[in-house]
From TrEMBL:
GO biological process, one term: methylation
Molecular-function GO terms, alphabetical: methyltransferase activity
The protein's name: eEF1A lysine and N-terminal methyltransferase
Natural source organism: Thalassarche chlororhynchos (Atlantic yellow-nosed albatross)
Superkingdom as given in the UniProt entry: Eukaryota
Top-level taxonomy: Eukaryota, Metazoa, Chordata, Craniata, Vertebrata
Amino acid sequence: MELLPRRPAEFGSARYWDRFFRQRGQRPFEWYGAFPELCPVLHKYVRPRDKVLVVGCGNSELSEQMYDVGMCEDIVNIDISDAVIRQMQERSGSKRPKMSYLLMDMLQMDFPDAHFQVVLDKGTLDAVLTDEEEATLAKVDKMFAEISRVLQVGGRYFCVSLAQAHVLKKAVEYFSQEGWVVRVHQVASSGDKQQFVLPVFVYVMTKFRKIPGSASQILEICPEEQDKPMRVESTERLVAAVKDRQHYALLCSQLSKTPCGEQVSLDLCDKENGRPRYTLHVVDSPSVKPSRDNRFAIFIIPQGRETEWLFGTEEGRRQLAASAGFGRLVTVALHREQHYEGMAGIQAELSGKVMELAPPGLPARQQVPFLSVGGDIGVRTVRHRATSPLSGEYVVEDVKGDGTCYFRRLIFLRNRNVVQSEARLLAPTPPPGQKKRRKDKKKPSPAEPPAAIDRSYLCCEHHKAMVAGLCLLGGPDPLPGALLAVLVVGLGGGSLPLFVHDYFSQARVAVAEIDPSMLEVATRWFGFSQGDRMRVHVSDGLDYVAKLAAEAPAQYDAIMFDVDSKDLTVGMSCPPPAFVEKPFLQKVKTILKPEGVFVLNLVCRDTRLKESVLATLREVFPLLYTRRIEGEVNEILFCQPSPEGRQDPAELGARARALEGALRQPGRPWDSSYVLADMLQAVKIL
């Protein structure tokens, strides 16, 4: 387009603007921010008796519209283009006698000090501050100094801008250092988003007398949907908050035009404290044939179930969207730190925001259904929250699962979408002869002692596979009654060592756990206890195994590693890399009996790293079986020190059925969904 300059520097040239406005003619040119959009913010800060200066007025209608609606009349407009000033004098002339247009350079104004209560700048700063060259920054400093000079104390510099990071940063730093209060408003858009997608912002900078020696600054942001400003502590945080809103606007524009090939994720934060309140995933299903009623829906994930495969993985959400039969499904996860007023409250809170994520072609007044499991938002009760020096902040919470079952979970908040440990809760039963109390029964409070744990139930599929791996142990005695020595590295909630202890009646179980907080959590909240056959050693697993290898080799029938990595930057979250280095694995082999089995829970998303780990394991253990956990990243590895113990899948299946038969004792509870042979059906020999 011929009207645009060849070089950014031309934006500051009077010659360029004369040519621009002569070519454009009488048509008003609005960079951005039409009067209806700006009016609510202007009304907050501009009073009818204020003297207003508009710098770089161009032929915008903003001043005329402010005058015509009675917002204020004492308005002085200045510009460096003689052509546009003459044009505007002719256009306004006698219609607006109290408003004037003057040919003047804002870098060198003729007005006396403290002459105006408001200085209004609509796109002028953006046009001047095109780069961060030294000459440009000097020009902007001069502009700011002149604006400051002509404003009264208590006056407002009102700057309409697209808020590019370098522009916003320069304005905020300059005026906050001068002791001014800086507030940034996002303007509610009413224009054509197809044509212009970037949000418009208004910096309102209020002049105060600078207090010598004071370093305090007041920086605030007002999102478009609320009047109450949010305080931010630094220029960097303010720039980041604006950038988040710009990215969101671009995302909404993209989603409104084309289907998204990949799932899009975003957090909606609490207005009061800025913490995430909802996590949204936008899922498009190309296979769904669109009709009027199946274009768009919102799915509320019940509290506590956001970690389940169907809701917590890309593939699961894709399957959910396809089975729901909607072209675009937005899943909504609820955060544990927040309070929600039921499904109706969530719907009222989200209905306006989610419509910004609507697919292309959705009718403007189309009613969008809100879906959920069973029509409610689930139940989540935080029982305990604390911080461990080793594991960071964590919570113990009770959640309602599918149906009537309740589960207790341990969550490390550094990785809040992963359940660290889980146990099923037993339904409370009244004493013999006492009838159940129903409607008058009080709900347990978070401070009450924990409900009974179902020790017969292994919630985690990888734990079921690890226990099934004990079928690889040979010996003449029936396994449940055999004298077994088992080492478990990684306690968590304690369900794995508890199950081995309870169902293998002669097993002696040692547990190595590096974090003393986890022993306290397992004991208080997950029904774990120590005794003659169960001992916990609070020690780094690396050090404990090394000590055993030096003092007492070949003493364990089974060694189980279920230990998470604290380093989230590595593509392997279980175990830490040091646990699968060759020198350490050789120490593990040293303390394992020749006919024993080493069981490792491997969670590795890095393909190359995984191949390296498997190669190292094969170097140390000649016989290696693997079992993938369906729908999860977990892979259970069964390692044996001698190739002579190799068994084919049919043999393993027979041994598993025999072991399960021995474990299912009369009067002892057993989870009917736990079939050991199923756990070993998909085992492969590497």
